[in-house]
Specification:
six-stranded mixed β-sheet; single chain; 155 residues; 31% helix; alpha/beta; 5 helices; Stationary-phase Survival Protein Sure Homolog, Chain: A
């Protein structure tokens, strides 16, 4: 099982690290995420310039790649064999804010999963409802545990 981990908050987001750690026990994990925050970007595709990709390990040393493209570009790059092997499942997030209702149409986290679905791959988008109107740092531990359980069930 080859799992692509991506997000819309950028390669250095704590939710991306939490999600990568959550799914590591479930298969081979590849991380390819935007090099910056693409929150509320919607379903964007880069068509007017080449995409740049560079190696950029996560804070725990997990190998990862960052691109100057959007979340949906990350998924398309992986599906088009940037990683050198087929991806079986895409997981996106963990977004530090809840993606509910109309928010899903704007969320880069959700549209990364939608891009995978367009290509015929199973995908899951994870988000966390942060407390206190998002004025405190999010605790991703519970979301990490839920992400692992949900991903295991999908597999």
């Amino acid at each position: 099982m080859h799992i692509l981990v991506t997000n819309d908050d950028g390669i250095h987001a704590p939710g991306l690290l939490a999600l990568a750690q959550a799914v590591k026990p479930l298969g081979k994990v590849s991380v390819l995420a935007p090099d910056r925050n693409w929150s509320a970007s919607g379903h964007v595709k880069t068509l007017d310039r080449p995409l740049r990709v560079k190696e950029m390990p996560l804070d725990d040393g997990t190998p990862a790649f960052a691109t100057d493209g959007a979340p949906s570009d990350c998924v398309a790059l992986a599906i088009c064999n940037f990683l050198g092997e087929k991806v079986d499942l895409v997981v996106s997030g963990i977004n530090p804010y809840a993606n509910l209702g109309h928010d899903v149409t704007y969320s880069g986290t959700v549209t990364a999963a939608m891009e995978a679905a367009i290509w015929g791959l199973p995908a899951i988008a994870f988000s966390l409802d942060s407390p206190k109107n998002h004025l405190v740092l999010a605790d991703f531990e519970a979301a990490l545990q839920v992400a692992r359980r949900v991903t295991r069930a999908v597999i």
